Amino acid sequence: MSGVFVTVDSSRLTLTERTGLSCGPEALHKALYAQRKKLAGRLAELTPSDWAAPTHCPRWSVHEVVRHLVDVAEYHVAHLTNRSEHSRFARFGAFDPASTPGLWLQDSAGQSPEQTVEAFLRVMEDERDSLGARIEEGGATLERSVAGRENLWSVRSLHVLWDAWLHERDMSRTLRLDDPPDVTVQRLITLYSLLLAGGVAALFGELPRVSLHLAGSPDGVYEISEHRGEVSVTAVGSASPAHLNGPFEAVVESISGRGPSLAEIVGVSNATVEGLSKLSAVMRPARPEDIPHRRAAEG
């Protein structure tokens, strides 16, 4: 892949596939619970028409998106407590980011918004306790990410925060999100988004070595690098030069399969941009009518 190799400065905040956050996972623990708690407050204010409103997630209403967030949190808890193989999720087989979430929703079909909120409040607390216990347990267990890469277990948990942030954005019009953004959440979301995109690019042989200036992000410039097949992202500060430039939220949403292409947003089309764009194809939700066919094809 084109670009200049960037040396990671260990004194800066870095997220690496197999070693995780340079500051440790505690920031994730606090950020995820705070994100959940804020959303719970918003959900309590929704009207019946709000629950039925469309979102930016194709063919999902606000209610369906929130049910998905409950599913993800429940799956997260099952995984953290080593119960995933014996949970309700096991019958769906290997996880496909484009189709499995739609299959999970079958279990909560017919659920009322009130029941969904109750489930969200309950699993929110279970998730906080389970993640806290797992952090105390420690260890450097490696797990396969949704992109098929080996990640430290806590990096996989960062995916849950990323998923929550994206889906809250999907519901932003109905939720009327007008609070100042949480800087810690923004920082973690940016690091993980770029790590995931870089990891997918690496799977296709496009090892990412590039810096991006993301306007509106906490740190300004982020460097994606690779060493011995392991991808890292480092927040280096707005004073550093960058190869690519674009708005923080637009870049994160684009590489996650939402909105215009990354090439349109950064105004550049090259091998680096193409590699970082591959994640969008992996994450784009399948249409409901396509899911049975996809599952049958998977065997």
Structure commentary:
- The chain is an alpha+beta fold and 299 residues long.
- 49% of the residues lie in helices and 11% in strands.
- The protein contains 12 helices and 8 strands.
- It has helices spanning 26-43, 48-51, 62-80, 100-104, 113-137, 153-170, 172-175, 183-203, 248-255, 262-266, 271-283, 291-298; strands at residues 14-16, 20-21, 142-144, 150-152, 210-215, 221-227, 230-235, 244-247.
- The strands form 2 sheets. The chain has a 6-stranded mixed beta sheet with strand order 2-1-7-6-5-8.
- Helix 1 (26-43) runs antiparallel to helix 5 and helix 3 (62-80) runs parallel beside helix 5.
- The longest helix has 25 residues, at 113-137.
- It is globular.
- The two termini are 34 Å apart.
- 44% of the residues are buried.
List keywords for this structure.
299 residues; alpha+beta; six-stranded mixed beta sheet; two-stranded antiparallel sheet; 12 helices; disordered N terminus
The main pleated sheet reads as: 6 strands, mixed
Identify the overall geometry: globular
Distance N terminus to C terminus?
34 Å
Query: Structural class given helices, strands, pairing?
Result: alpha+beta
Number of contiguous helices:
12
In the predicted model, the low-confidence regions spanning at least 5 consecutive residues are 1-11, 286-299
What's the number of extended β-strand segments?
Answer: 8
Mean pLDDT: 87
Radius of gyration: 19 Å
Task: Report the helical percentage.
Answer: 40-55%
Oligomer: single chain
Strand % is 5-15%
How are the strands of the biggest sheet laid out side by side? 2-1-7-6-5-8
What is the helix/strand order?
EEHHHHHEEHHHEEEEHHHH
